[in-house]
Amino acid sequence: MRLKVDENLPEEVAELLRQAGHDASTVLEQGLGGRADPDIARVCATEGRALLTLDVDFANVRRYSPSDYQGLIVMRLARQDKPHVLGVVRRLIALLEREPVERRLWIVEEERVRVRE
């Protein structure tokens, strides 16, 4: 799967995804740090990448319709410290192997993932 890791996530997230066989790039690697959300969304759509982010603005389906993107994965976590985020991403990787993301919005919480098409 092709993924773009937002700048609000630890760099290690991209590495975990790569180790699991995914094509993961980061916003920072592409020099897109600080860019507006619509710009990031446009780059993801152009590159055919699903976006993985902590930015809950991407959960607004009126602004970012899942049907327009390769996938939007928004992490809504009670804690956002690096060890906790990496632990949730490790569990998320197993789900990426089984469930389609394309044209869907995933809301990832500690104990569940909600999917909206």
Automatic annotation (TrEMBL):
Q: Do you know which InterPro entries this protein is assigned to?
A: DUF5615
The name on file for this protein is DUF5615 domain-containing protein
Q: Domain DUF5615 spans what residues?
A: 1-110
Which superkingdom, per the lineage?
Bacteria
Q: Which organism is it from?
A: Sorangium cellulosum (Polyangium cellulosum)
